[in-house]
């Protein structure tokens, strides 16, 4: 009996959460019958996303009224920056950590998280890795009794407040192959790719997915890729953001996570020019001026986005109520 009441109560609470969640019209019927405080919160941001300024790596903080989620944890050497940024954001507990793939610039901060913060659950692509950092944090998860789940195409995480994260990649087939001992891994192209949705707003999180993963995403999900904001794949590298992929995603804003003066030359000037629809770019390697591949849709309209980079703009904050969104940067403006 108690269980039944629990289920019914859960359903009522879920319905209430959906009603009060993203895209609910401010001052609408659900808020009108509530208290003034409830009305106020229904008009406030339902979702805050911070692309943290953590040097050369990724760490994206996703917060709803109910949950705090961190997508990737930047590199081992950048842990002081990660701690500073999490402290600035007032983070004490991280309900979910999503690790896109086991490269150091994405999982390097796990030791810090597990030592200094309360961590609820960990999600990754479910594939084993021989990386020392990976083996280390897996041991730590076991010792602390923290659950680790694998994400694959079709899995949906409820982040509360009507916000969801829907995994689009890896495919079930790749997830199965990749979990088989002896499989030859291509970690970037095994990155968890997923769409964060809040009402009419969406952001595509790509990890370090490159052209190979982009092609597979286009084949499986061409109609689902369109997003308000794109996290530039692989730190703005020329190995990602292919013309066909950008044509499908067609974001209004692109966010790039990269370190100042990084050794990789991220973001690549060709890719930056492609986002900005600039016809030419200067190749840093040979100093030559080259033509940019301009992205156009079937109507012949040219793709052009606003671009923010953590190396130039510091931490970039996106807030949305599910209808409109705002991007603010610690320094400078969008390109
Ligand atoms: Zn990376």
UniProtKB/TrEMBL annotation:
Family matches, as Pfam families: Lactamase_B
Annotated PROSITE patterns: PROKAR_LIPOPROTEIN
Keyword annotations of the record: Hydrolase, Signal
Claim: RNA-binding is one of the keywords in the record: no
Domain of life: Bacteria
SMART domains for the chain: Lactamase_B
Signal peptide limits: 1-20
Record domain Metallo-beta-lactamase: where: 56-260
A Gene Ontology molecular function term of the record: hydrolase activity
Cited PANTHER family: DNA INTERNALIZATION/COMPETENCE PROTEIN COMEC/REC2 (PTHR30619), RECOMBINATION PROTEIN 2 (PTHR30619:SF1)
Name of the protein: MBL fold metallo-hydrolase
């Amino acid at each position: 009996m108690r269980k039944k009441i629990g289920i019914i109560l859960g359903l009522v609470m879920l319905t209430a959460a959906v009603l009060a969640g993203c895209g609910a019209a401010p001052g609408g019927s659900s808020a009108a019958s509530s208290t003034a405080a409830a009305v106020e919160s229904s008009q406030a941001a339902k979702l805050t996303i911070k692309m943290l300024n953590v040097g050369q790596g990724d760490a994206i903080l996703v917060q709803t009224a109910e949950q705090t989620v961190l997508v990737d944890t930047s590199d081992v050497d950048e842990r002081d920056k990660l701690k500073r940024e999490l402290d600035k954001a007032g983070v004490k507990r991280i309900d979910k950590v999503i690790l896109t793939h086991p490269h150091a610039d994405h999982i390097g901060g796990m030791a810090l998280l597990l030592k200094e913060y309360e961590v609820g659950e960990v999600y990754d692509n479910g594939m084993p890795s021989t990386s020392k950092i990976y083996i280390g944090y897996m041991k730590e998860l076991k010792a602390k009794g923290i659950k680790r789940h694998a994400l694959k195409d079709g899995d949906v995480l409820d982040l509360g407040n009507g916000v969801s994260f829907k995994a689009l990649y890896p495919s079930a087939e790749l997830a199965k192959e990749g979990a088989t001992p002896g499989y030859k891994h291509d970690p970037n192209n095994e990155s968890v790719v997923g769409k964060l949705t809040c009402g009419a707003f969406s952001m595509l999180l790509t990890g370090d997915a490159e052209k190979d993963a982009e092609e597979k995403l286009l084949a499986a999900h061409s109609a689902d890729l369109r997003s308000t904001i794109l996290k530039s794949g692989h730190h703005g590298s020329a190995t990602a953001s292919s013309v066909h992929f950008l044509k499908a995603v067609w974001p209004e804003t692109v966010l790039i996570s990269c370190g100042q003066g990084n050794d990789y030359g991220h973001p690549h000037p060709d890719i930056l020019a492609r986002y900005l629809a600039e016809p030419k770019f200067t190749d840093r390697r040979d100093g030559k001026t080259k033509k940019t591949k301009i992205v156009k849709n079937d109507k012949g309209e040219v793709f052009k986005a606003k671009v923010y980079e953590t190396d130039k703009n510091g931490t970039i904050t996106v807030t949305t109520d599910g209808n409109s969104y705002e991007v603010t940067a610690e320094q400078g403006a969008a390109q």
